[in-house]
Amino acid sequence: MITVAVVEDHPVFRNGLVHVIEAAPDLQLAGESRSVEELDARGGADAQVVLLDLHLPGLGGVPAVAHLCARGHAVLVVSASEAPADVVEAIGAGARGYLTKQTDEAEIVGAIRAVAQGRTYVSATLASYLLQTPIHITGREREILELVAGGETDQDIAELLQLSVRTVHSHLDRIRNKTGSRRRADLTRFALQRGIVPRSPKEG
């Protein structure tokens, strides 16, 4: 069974999500709440997946995503916003998936199952928006992506580019926020898709 908690401040929509969870044979409701603070206080702390609205009273948006991810939850955002920037920022903060509130029940269940298995899920419409949205990569970020794609560690990159490890981490955080890619394998894939050629230390 996949345990799921719902954090949504609109009662009608929250009840709808609860119904979707209770109707699926492999999903179990771990708790429902109007805010992240209420989830922390009233239960749902053991939920594998948290369905999260971004616009909540109290802790909301990207900080809410980061908070829940730090607690070990797989966060699946279900938001009224279709803005590409919101999607990228949520994924960049650690969310495993992003759906709009127009998503049907079958896709919600499929997305829950996907993120519970460690995969990322973004609805097809939002994914197409993201592909159309230009992502600006600076010259320094491009250098770092070349080395990441070449298999270099953060320490190696710092030494090769004569930067501090902290600075490398800052650049990588910005790249992750822009691309929505958290894992190094995903960053490598992003680099290759945009023609950024992997660079090894021997090439300088």
Structure description:
- The protein has 204 residues and is α/β, with parallel strands linked by helices.
- It has 2 domains: 2-131, 3-Layer(aba) Sandwich (Rossmann fold); 139-203, Winged helix-like DNA-binding domain superfamily/Winged helix DNA-binding domain (Arc Repressor Mutant, subunit A), CATH 1.10.10.
- 51% of the residues lie in helices and 14% in strands.
- It has helices spanning 11-23, 36-42, 61-70, 84-92, 105-116, 124-132, 139-149, 154-161, 165-179, 184-193, and strands spanning 2-7, 27-33, 49-52, 74-79, 97-100, 121-122.
- The chain has a 6-stranded parallel beta sheet, sandwiched between helices.
- Strand 1 (2-7), helix 1 (11-23) and strand 2 form a beta-alpha-beta unit.
- The mean pLDDT is 86.
Shape: elongated
Strand order of the largest sheet: 2-1-3-4-5-6
CATH superfamily of the largest domain: Response regulator
**Which fold does the CATH topology of the largest domain refer to?**
Rossmann fold
**Text of the CATH class of the largest domain:** Alpha Beta
CATH architect. name of the largest domain: 3-Layer(aba) Sandwich
| Overall SS class | alpha/beta
The number of helical runs is: 10
Order of helices and strands: EHEHEHEHEHEHHHHH
* Percent in strands: 5-15%
